[in-house]
Please model this.
Amino acid sequence: MASPNAKVPHYYKIYLYKRVVQAKLFIDVHYAESINLNSIADEAYFSKYHFIRLFKSIYGKTPHHYLTQVRINAAKQLLKKDIQVSEVCTSVGFDSATSFAVLFKKSVGLSPSAYQQQQRQRMTDIVARPLRYVPNCFVETYGWNKN
Amino acid sequence: MITKMTHMCVYVLNQDSAYDFYVNKLGFKVHTDAPMGPGARWLTVCPTDQPDLEITLFLVAEGAMFTSDTVKTMTDLIKKGTFGAAVFTCVDLQATYEELKTKGVVFKKTPTKEFYGYEALFVDDSGNWFSLSQPI
Model:
């Protein structure tokens, strides 16, 4: 496994893994709160520098980058539910509407409102014409075109 | 020339439970969740970094495709852990194992070094098993 330090004993490596995983799960649960790198590192009982290095070696991205990604993904789910963009922004833990809009567009390629509009149309279309979203071989095999 | 796989099927015994397992435990993204008439639902999910592979979580239920006998046979086989559905990879197997275990995922094989890399085996909520690997 991608060991943070090949020379440390196995049991200690497992111990480190558990703490980093705990910090990742802390982000997964508390992303909507006002958490930052310090609180996440505290959760894992690491110094900030050591924590960033270990987290990145395991997850391929920094804790900050991961936290942003979790917030953007949560925002996408809320936008699909037709919740107002400003409300979504604060609900997923962003302090600033501007930084939310910039980070969202950088990650998704659309502004939050454009994404919401796109998803609204898609959801309407899925309900109205579900067969368009299923390969025809399945539709015919399972007889859904006869419903 | 075949260039890509776009869809694969995992037969599941309960789609609500499968949704929870694949989305909330494994962290997969929902691609399409569409009603297909009474008792039918087209539910596909994708691994985090593979948005163009739809894993169809297909319900084993009596209907146009399956007779009641077939449903019974398939249900028994799935529950018995007969079907190994796929191989997934991750950046760090030990970390992924620790995380999934914390979330309640059942492993048949803990992370083990093999000649081709590191591998663990886990079971979904229906009984399908998967290999989870980290290439060397």
Q: What stands out?
A: Chain A touches chain B through 28 residues (CB under 8 Å).
